[in-house]
Amino acid sequence: MNLRELASKYAPRTKPQPAAPPAPAAVPNVDTEQILRALKEQNRSLSNAITGIRKQLEHQPYVIAELMRRHEQLIEGDMPMPVLGANWAAVAPTILFVVDEILGRPGRRTMLECGSGASTLWTAAALRKRGEGHVTSVEHDKEYAEVTRQRLADHGLESWATVVDAPLIDIDVPGLGTQPWYDLSGLGEVGEVDLLFVDGPPRPTAPLARYPAVPQLLPRLAHGALVVLDDTNRKAERDITKMWAAEGAFDRRITFVKDVARSTVLQLD
After folding, report:
1. For each successive 10 residues of the chain (269 residues), what is the average pLDDT?
2. How far apart are CA 98 and CA 265, in angstroms?
């Protein structure tokens, strides 16, 4: 229905009058400069995204080669390893970073994970290669925890890793109120943790689902410990890193180290 038909439909029913010429259409008040700026910003964002994808593709052959080299170094037998980057699994560059931290000098020996899976197997394999250390993973999904345990057993890694059933319970998080997080009652003593890998709880759990990791686990983290937060390609996780590193957030200083693929590495004093 055009403008004239709409006008006719809602006009009062009076004696027909000669038709008047249609009024000129109103010209909207458009800020041309504002539109051009918005288009320029969109173009810049798209260009940056394309550049990032191109860099990832160019870097991929190196990542694959390095992952194959670590596989030859660390993995025994013919059992397949979990696919990296699928579902909730960490991507290859993050796994390579964690493995190299364990194998380096002085190396990381006591690991704690929020969320088990592919990272648990690779971490345990690196610790076996090093000949010392242990990784403990807290997992809220009992079925998934059992899958990880079975995979560890398949690779002969069960003595290097422990998967703890830790259902999500409501806890009080300072500044955020009450939200679900892992029940740590079954965690026990794990020693001073020198690398914390945070890949859970899942995003739908709460708006800032992974924020409690540092305030809840801070007493267990050694001085100089690294905190690796996965999925910082998402806004919520990027906000979490800023909140952790904010001045005065905790009684210990947390500083940014580097970004690795879609993960962010921070360090505690």
Report:
1. 41 53 58 84 76 59 74 81 68 92 91 96 95 97 96 96 98 93 94 95 94 96 97 96 93 95 95
2. 10
